[in-house]
Every structure is written in C-alpha cells, then in structure tokens.
Amino acid sequence: MTTDKEKTESFRESKQPNNEKSPLLPNQQGPDEEFNGASFTGAVFNLSTTIIGAGIMALPATMKVLGLGVGIAMIVFVAVLTEASVEILLRFSRVANATSYGGVMGVAFGKVGRALFQLCILVNNLGTLIVYMIILGDVLSGTASSGVHHTGVLEGWFGENWWNGRHFVLLVITIFVFAPLVSLKRIDSLRYTSALAVALALVFLVITAGITVVKLFNGSIAMPRFLPKVTDIASVWNLFTVVPVLVTAFICHFNVHTIDNELGNSYMIQPVVRTSLALCSSVYILTSFFGFVLFGDSTLDDVLANFDTDLGIPYSSLLSDVVRISYALHLMLVFPIIFHPLRINLDDLLFPSSRPLDSDNRRFALTTIGLICIIFLGANFIPSIWDVFQFSGATATVCIGFIFPAAMVLRDGHGIATTKDKILSVFMIGLAVFSNLIAIYSDATALLEKNVSPHA
Prior knowledge:
Layout: H1 4-14, H2 40-51, H3 55-66, H4 68-95, H5 101-141, H6 153-158, H7 166-182, H8 191-217, H9 233-239, H10 243-250, H11 253-262, H12 269-295, H13 316-350, H14 361-381, H15 385-411, H16 419-452
Helix pairs in contact: 2-8, 2-11, 2-12, 3-4, 3-10, 3-12, 4-12, 4-15, 5-7, 5-13, 5-14, 5-15, 7-13, 7-14, 8-12, 8-13, 9-16, 10-15, 15-16
C-alpha cells in the first residue's frame, strides 16, 4: 500500500517541468545546497506580500468614489473571484502537468498564448514596481501630483536639500536596498523579509485605526457616506475607474506556481491561497475603512500623502512619520517579490532557448540591471500612482487575474471544465471587459478634460 509520504513525493515529482526554462520556476539547487521545501507559514507570508503592495494605499481613494458600504462589498467580491480564478489556474495546471502560469498558457494556447502572458507580466509587474518607487518618493521626498505640495518625511525633518530630493533618494534606495534584495535567486529566500513586510503593513493599519478611533470619540471627524455620489451619467461611469485598482490590489497569480513548486507538500497550496486572501482582505477592508473615515473626501490617490498634515491628536507628527516610514519599509521588502517573476519572464521571452537564468550569472546581472534602470526612470517621470494603476490594471492585470484563467476553462482542451466553471468564466470575462473598457473611457475623458481646461 502506498503511504501518504510516497503519494506526496510522487505528486511532487509529477510537477517537475519538462522544460527548465518555464517561467516562474524555483531555481535548481546546487549539489552543496539542500532545500527540503518551503513551509506553510513562509508560503503564506510570500503570497500575502505579493498581494499587499501599493494597492492598499489606493484603496481608501476607492472608498471616496464608491462609499464605504459599496467599497467594502467590492473588496470581498474581488477576493472571492480571485480565489476562484486561482483555483481554476491550479486545477488546469495539474492536468496539463505545467509548473508555471506561462507553461499552462502554452499548453492551452500555444506559443502565442505563452508570449501574451509574458507580455502582460512585463506590463503588470513593471507598472507595480514603478508605483512602489513613486510612493517611496512621495513618502520620503514629498509630492505635488494633486496640485498641492505634500511634504515628505526627509523634507519635514531636514528641510529642502539636494540630497533629500526625489531623484537622489530613489537612486540611493535602488542601489543600497533594491539591488541586494533582487539579487536573491530563490523566492523562498525572501520569506523572512516577507514576514517583516506583512508586520509593517499591520503597523500602518494599527496606527491609522488608533488615530481614527481617537478622532471619532472626540468628535473631530464624522462617519463618511456609505454610498457613492451619483448625480448624472458621468458620475456612474466614474464608479468603474476603481475596478483596475481593486483588481491590482488582489493580483498574485504570477507567484502562485513559484510558491507551489517550492512547498514541501504540494497539497498545501490551496490552503495557502485561502489563508493569504483572507488575511489580505481583512487588512484591505480595515485600511480602507479607517483611511477613508480619517480623511473623508480629502483622501488622496496615495493615502500616505495625507499624513503630512497635522492630524489633530497628541504626538501627531511622530505618528504620521511612523506610519509613512513603516509603509515605505514595507514596500522596499515587497519589491523583490514582484521583481522575481518579472525578471524570469522577460528572460524567457527574450532568450527562450538559453540555459536557465539562475545558471548564467552574466545574463542574470544584465537583466536585473536593465529592469532596475527602467523602473527607476519610470518612477521619476510618472507623476501619480493612479495613472499607473489605471493603465496596467485595466489591461495586463485583469488579463492575468481573470481573463486568461477563464479562457482556459472555455477552451477546455482536457475536458475537465464543469458547467459551473464555464458559467463563472463567461461572467468573469464579460465583467472584466465591460468594466475595464468603461474605466479606460472614463479615465481618458477625465485626462483630456484636465489637459484642455487650462486653455479654455
């Protein structure tokens, strides 16, 4: 009789790739390095860190658009859809014997499908990492993207100097923080930084909640609206602009296979996904609630920028700085988790026939340096995180999170899709296409009006 251990080992062996160049695979271990599989806790931290990134900073602004009631309901709704799409992705990967998202896309749609997925990863992850750098610049050096200058932490402490300007600060962070972290070749090596990143996100949440509760009790703020403001058809279309932000907030599909491949027990991935989504949804709901209650209709696209003002409570300045610095550190630690699949997929797209990236140090270094430079330049020339979220979230991110998994179900090359799967897939594709087309239209209209209004 086969033991449970033998079953697990057999299943893990069946997951090994036929093609070592499949993107998002764990790196091959050298003869002197023993790796017995990632733990459940480490996997939860890594996946949670993939999810909780810059999206949390834009979610309070979505509450300003939707109102608390509708906004919180939408967070739960997108979390449920995300869990369903990840389950579909993993189920079809098992049947196709694919150990990567790119691999299962290749099985379902051939080389074109695989390349399309990789291009979406480039757009999504580059956009996300550029957002991280923009927020770091906003927090440490200040921002004027809203038309009003908001002071950064370093500017508040030391005044305006060349060495705490946006470009120089981001350059220092890139060289001394990002470069060492993105040099790690296996994602499980980041489990401790991921745990610290989640803890720092909780610090941000706890302090924000504490400030909000104090101000509610002393009557200096009131409970904001629970429903959106709908006055005309334009305000209805404007509601859809939050969809790319919500989708981006939950995107984690590109790291699921990597974490699954590194798990000591392959059957743990679904509990890992559910635990991570439950944890992140709770953090998102609480952050959105307290952030919007605290700042109301003055909530900025990046809520961290709101913390440069006097919060009207004792030790306001100290608490504001702790909030902003804790989340800046969180984003620094999340950066390599998002960078990891970006680098592997770019390499596989450009050099599909070359040996694995982790075994070619020269190619690894050049790819890493090139991507870091692109991200750095993007962060210095794109003014607002909302602009990036709208573009990447309405295109590449929604494809990765919902359209590609749903398309696999409708194609169903292995004959495993149920009627429920097909109905859900049609719903996901229809909802994603409809809502994001409206979001793009609404944002494009608003951008054009903003650009022409000064000349009117």
